[in-house]
Amino acid sequence: MNRVALVSLCLLTLVSCSRPGPAYQKVTALDVSADAPTGTVLTVTDASGHSTSFTRGDLAALGLVTYTTPDPSLKNRPVRYVGPLLSDLLRRTGIPQDATLHLVAHDRYTTNLDLKPLKDVPLVLALEADGKALKLSDQGPVYLVFPYQAYKLNTAKYDSAWVWQLERIEAR
């Protein structure tokens, strides 16, 4: 084998090994146990003030994905989350993918999230954790999670944006 072919083969091998796998996988079903939350679980308001309410089923109908990622609120224990992509919810409600979102939790915790630097990061609105429906008593029914397992994100900046018991998203 000549030197150019050998170097090309080595480079091709290195490039293919260095590519990260997909951050998430698509799934088709949620935990449908009797104790899964019912009724409106999330309200989204666009910049014009128009609000749309979503049930757990409405959110699941956007399409479901899963990933296992370390959760900063659980001492970075890996958790398998399932839910729709935030980007799909934004598309459904007509909110730009680069908007700033005002996130409001059930306990009235609030934070603002600028999506511009997260344009290609698949944030998930988790409805399920480790195979169980998220309820109000365990960070649900909606929990905004970040794919720390697949993206090098500034944890000092984004740990506070992992909003559990998320009940409102408002475009700013």
From TrEMBL:
<dbReference type="InterPro" id="IPR036374">
    <property type="entry name" value="OxRdtase_Mopterin-bd_sf"/>
</dbReference>
<protein>
    <recommendedName>
        <fullName>Oxidoreductase molybdopterin-binding domain-containing protein</fullName>
    </recommendedName>
</protein>
<feature type="signal peptide">
    <location>
        <begin position="1"/>
        <end position="23"/>
    </location>
</feature>
<dbReference type="InterPro" id="IPR000572">
    <property type="entry name" value="OxRdtase_Mopterin-bd_dom"/>
</dbReference>
<keyword id="KW-0732">Signal</keyword>
<dbReference type="Pfam" id="PF00174">
    <property type="entry name" value="Oxidored_molyb"/>
</dbReference>
<feature type="domain" description="Oxidoreductase molybdopterin-binding">
    <location>
        <begin position="79"/>
        <end position="149"/>
    </location>
</feature>
